[in-house]
Amino acid sequence: MGIIIKKNKLAFWVIFFINLIISALAFAVLPERFFNDAKYIITPSLHGSESIGSYGFTIAFYKATYLSKLHFSLVALIQYPILLYTLYKIGLPPNFHKINARNLIIYLGFFMLAIFVSMPSKEFITFLFVSTIVFLYQSNVAAKYKVGLSMLFLVVFGLLFRIYFVLVPIIAIGMYWVSFIQFKNRILATFFYGILISVLLSLSYGVVKGEFLSQTSRESVNVDRKGMDVNSMIISPVKTDVWYGETVGIFYGFLSVNLPFIEGVKHILSPQIVAFIIWQLMLFYILIVRYIRCLKDRKDRKYELWAILIVFAYFIVQGVFEPDLGTATRHKVAFLPLIYYIFYYDYLRKKPLQNS
Asked: 116 in a domain, yes or no?
């Protein structure tokens, strides 16, 4: 008697094995500069004795697991299956094999993930952390604690790993309360006030530290990289050393990494950048559609709503910190567990933690 494999499972594993091969061979085809971060992570003479922050945490992780000693292709063969199996444990929708916009975005996400975890990478750690929020929402933990715990997780992860994650729950909660106000256009209002919260946080930081948030991150990084082979840098149209310049810079940064029409025109001859822009626009559109649905049914879609607000808050934070479109893409892919959960929420909420 032959083994019958469901079409959705077959599609998942075919896509997995194709991308696993791509991930293992990425070291041979990607440009040298693509591995700068990975080389920094595994080379003691480059990073010295960093012990805190995302680099310090990542360096310690790869040293403790001995992954820093392995060839990049072996790292890929270990890391990529772990991440795809994590998504498989979240759940597999019954229509995963069908060609539609939602599935195509996830398929492309699998491909980009294969590229970005084909080496020692901070995104590997971020992906696993983001997965814990999804598993929390699917768990048997008392409903009244789930959202609060997910916000606490983000704060703790921010303090231990990337400090800007601390901003995500602040902005997400602010957007949640704004969404109750009956604006003529609640979608635009929610984003406007979410970005405004990030502006106020940056200005407050500037009062204390003497520099605004985008100055200490995006702008300082890009100043050091001028003249280098980085063709998708996000440069604010005005100087960000005054409050109104920082405000413009943050709004411009949000549009550049999430609705990159201007960047698309600038890089029309760079197919990899155009491909990201199309992926990003499709992703953003579907998230907006699902957000509108959540606003109409808050009670039944409570965790989908909070997952979307976390993702949107992260997108807003990216508008402050991301130095270029390539980095923005890499960081977005690490949020694939939440995006996956949102896209297939109608199925995944009914079948938590099962091998579908």
From this structure: yes
